[in-house]
Amino acid sequence: MNAQSQFPDEQDANGGFVRQADEFRQWLGTPDADQFPAVAGRYHLYISLACPWASRTLIVRNVKGLKKAISVSVVDPIRDEKGWAFREGPGYGKDPINGFNYLSEAYFATDAAFKGRITVPVLWDKEKAVIVNNSEDDICRMLNDDFGAVAESSINLFPAELEPEHANLAQYIYENVNNGVYRAGFATSQTEYNKAFKALFAALDELELRLSTKRYLFGDQIVEADWRLFCTLVRFDAVYHGHFKCNLRRIVDYPNLHGYLLDLFQHPGIAGTVNFDHIKRHYYFTHDDINPSRIVPLGPALDFTAAHGRDALSHQDS
Ligand SMILES: N[C@@H](CCC(=O)N[C@@H](CS)C(=O)NCC(=O)O)C(=O)O
């Protein structure tokens, strides 16, 4: 018999965690350009700084130079039975756009019959007052592709010449690392936990090797898959290692992954997207099936300002 699941609707018969599909998948610019033109000032991102999926959208917004064009608000990291809420606190605040108390209000304003889990990130259209999209993959792609000259940076996080390898690696990272830590943490049977755990550490070993000769996943250029991997790595030692029982090794035990993590953390616009108070309080407090005492550990000591030593790998290949 399997243990009680954190999300009973997202559990298979073997005790494996099967994530729900994103519900809102409309696109900015073409082909829905009349509906949702990609213009400055019209869209708002609702995020949690605890959430790895939402943080990726914030990172893409920052590195693309869309801070002025797309506004952001941050929910309270503590999610209770009413879901994500807007309250005043350190690093989060009230909803400046709609005055919502709960993120669920955005979902029900868009679809009164919505029945799934209320998740971040959400890309909100201030003009139509609806959710455009709640898939972080779609949102990252739209922020990269669709804002043209509105984006202050011309960096391309999805270079055409790297496809399809980039998409394949992103999918591999999603399955084994980003969602792999959740599959380990939310498993309700030993067998499913073991499977997720082994796949996760096999993937980390493979990525460690890959990063021994390349500064970033594809050489000198930072692409979306790097930020995707970063969002899990930066949370790993603080929460996944303990809370999700991903404890074969820590990221500090992998010389290349650790240096790579520090390198990305120290990239302009990134450190401010990482909030360990939100990250730790969210995971340890909110998943009460996994941590019923809701005690938030005080450690580990982490130093993201240490020298990363990765510059030497630049220009070696790619
Ligand atoms: N859209 C993402 C998932 C987003 C997601 O699950 N976000 C979490 C926070 S990390 C959330 O909002 N959870 C709300 C809940 O569990 O009720 C995906 O399907 O891959």
TrEMBL record:
The residue stretches assigned to a coiled coil in this entry are none
One example GO MF annotation: glutathione transferase activity
Record GO cellular component, one term = cytoplasm
InterPro entries found in the cross-reference section? Glutathione-S-Trfase_C-like, Glutathione-S-Trfase_C_sf, Glutathione_S-Trfase, Glutathione_S-Trfase_N, GST_Omega-like_C, GST_Omega/GSH, Thioredoxin-like_sf
Please list the residue ranges annotated as the GST C-terminal domain. Answer: 144-283
Q: Kindly identify the residues recorded as the active site.
A: 51 (nucleophile), 182 (proton donor/acceptor)
Q: Which residues are annotated as site, described as Lowers pKa of active site Cys?
A: 240, 283
Ligand binding (glutathione): 84, 117-120
Q: Where are the transmembrane segments?
A: none
Q: What is this protein called?
A: Glutathione S-transferase family protein
